[in-house]
Amino acid sequence: MLLAVVVGLGVTALAVGPVALTPGEVLGALAGAEGRAGVIVLGLRAPRLALALVVGAALGLAGALLQSVVRNPLASPDVVGLTGGASAAAVLAIAAGASGTAVDAAALGGALLAAVAVFGFSGRGVTGTRFIVVGVAVAFLANGFLGYGLTRASLAEAQSAFFWLVGSVGTAPWGDVARVAAVLGLVGVVLVTLRRPLSAVALDDDSARAIGARPVATRVAAIVLSSVLAAVAVAVAGPVAFVAFVSGPIARRLRGHGPALVTAPLVGGVVVVAADLVAQHLIPGSLEPPVGLVTGVLGAPFLIWLLVRGEQRKEMSA
């Protein structure tokens, strides 16, 4: 079902715009036909669509992986400071005059540094409510460094950073698409090799140890992988809000059980592509808003609903 939705949204994204194209023209352009349709589809719209898909998939997998190993639906890179650390480091790098791969490296370093801080203050189990609270504190700390970076930047750099901080897939060179896709594929291969330890972590730690697993080490490895995914996505598109947070719960509801590590990337891709279509074509006005504004508006009510639902369950169990 999700693959069908991705295909439908993809054809729509390639067809609609200032110059409308028919589905036949879109398919012809993808098949290599020359002419106006080929230039529009392959040169302008396809890179943006591809970047939205891979960024959404990376964020969706990062969120679902973190939520599954921490065993908390509130755990996601943007809530526990991983995205904030990546954003702060990237803005500091931009303020220092860096660009391209240097910004990518800074974002990865910032995300990993935030992860180390969360590890250090969360205690030995690296799980539970304490992990979330510490992560929120780290996110606030990262926000302070981010503000410092903005004050150190020139007016032009600060304007660029402000737009980037909202989250956008509007500028999409194929190199960025390839970089995110490569990291996504590499992490996917690593997760395949870790499928048995990850399944054991779904149990409580004592049961996992009883069957020979190492739950804390597996949890730390999974959080590092989540940090890498979040960092590469943030480096090329900015912190697209709430995609990592909502993809896991939606994917688990669709599957009915398990961490949904295959379904969540598809959900993330659908969310970002759909939000980008809304931003481009359904919001009135001459200024096209970044996709992060749309995901933020949709994600905030989802967070409130999840919190209210959790409180209601506690009251019913009491």
Structural class: mainly alpha
| Unreliable stretches covering 5 or more consecutive residues | none
Strand content: under 5%
Largest sheet: none
CATH architecture verdict: Orthogonal Bundle
User: What's the total number of strands?
Assistant: 0
The residue-averaged pLDDT reads: 84
SS field, number of helical segments: 14
CATH class: Mainly Alpha
Task: Give the proportion of residues in helices.
Answer: over 70%
As for the CATH topology, it is: ABC transporter involved in vitamin B12 uptake, BtuC
Sum up the overall morphology in one term. globular
Order of helical and strand elements: HHHHHHHHHHHHHH
End-to-end Cα distance, whole Å, is 38 Å
Gist?
The chain has 318 residues and is mainly α. The chain contains 14 helices and no strands.
Describe how the helices and strands are arranged.
Elements: H1 2-15, H2 23-30, H3 36-70, H4 82-95, H5 101-122, H6 128-152, H7 155-166, H8 174-193, H9 195-201, H10 205-210, H11 215-237, H12 243-255, H13 263-281, H14 291-317
3D architecture notes:
The protein has a single domain, classed as Orthogonal Bundle (ABC transporter involved in vitamin B12 uptake, BtuC), CATH 1.10.3470. Helices cover 77% and strands 0% of the residues. The protein contains 14 helices and no strands. Helix 2 packs across helix 3 (36-70). The model has no long low-confidence stretch (mean pLDDT 84).
